[in-house]
Structure formats: C-alpha cells, structure tokens
Amino acid sequence: MSETTLQQVDNYRETSQLIREISTSLTEDQLSWKPAPEKWSVKEVVAHLVDSSFVHSVRIRKIVAEQAQGFILYDQDAWVASSRANESSFEEILLAFDAILAYNARYYERLKPEQWEHKGLNNGKEVSAADLFQGFIRHVNIHLAQIQRNLDALPAALR
Prior knowledge:
- The longest helix has 25 residues, at 42-66.
- This protein has seven helices and two strands, in the order H-H-H-H-H-H-E-E-H.
- Helix 2 runs antiparallel to helix 6, helix 2 runs parallel beside helix 7 and helix 4 (42-66) crosses helix 5.
- With 159 residues, the chain is mostly helical.
- A two-stranded antiparallel ribbon has the order 1-2.
- The mean pLDDT is 90.
- It has a single domain, classed as Four Helix Bundle (Hemerythrin (Met), subunit A) (Up-down Bundle), CATH 1.20.120.
- Residues 13-147 form the DinB-like domain.
C-alpha cells in the first residue's frame, strides 16, 4: 500500500473523531433537529454514514474478490427514514460507525496494490476499488459539511 493510501486510510479512520468533535456539546434536541421535513438531522446524517459504510463495505469486497459487474444500490432516504435514528442514542450510532470504520480500515490496509485496481460497474460506469474508496472519503466529507450546515442553521431557541 502506498504512503498516500495509508494516510487516506488514517483520515478515513479519523472520521468518527471529527464527528465527535463537532457534536460533543450538542443536546439531544440539537442532534435531532431537522432544517426541513425532507432534510436530515445530525443523528440521521450519521446513521446514513453507518448505512453507507455497510453498503460500501460490500461493494468494495465484491470488486476486490469477485470483480463484480454491478454495485448494490439502495434508497438512502428510505433507509434513513426506516432507521428512526432520532429515536436512538447518538452514542449508539457513533459506536456502530466506529465499528464499521475500524473493520473497513483494517480491510483497506490488507489490500495488495493490484487489488486497488480491480474494477466494477457503478450505474454503468467502470470504477476501481481505489476510485470507490476515494469516492467514499468524498462522500463522508460532504456529510461532515452537511452536519456543520445543520448546526449553523439551528434556530435561536435551540442554541
């Protein structure tokens, strides 16, 4: 594994810590607040990251092990809605996220350089395991920014 990839795995692994730093002083009301009915709360964003980590875990393993021709697709909004994350403890959601991050990070560290080049199809577009990994890191960063936007938009009554 290249030094760059090792650093990216470390960055991936630190994602949960970033979420903890952002949310450490938040109340349950702040964590559950939604900027609009169709938008996600902080809890829902993190629950989505757990869901997408599970899906990503299967996708990357199918590419590496099977050089799969199609990705597992899912309806993220339906998954978030059915999770009822706002009824969960934020700490429980973070513990699940920690576990899947640690499990996937160990997997990435064991991949051989040629396995990063294995390819699969995502909506008809060919992507490598490395592309999928990079895409997931971008995905997490998008949601970290979403969490910050939620916090910035909190109504005065919740601040």
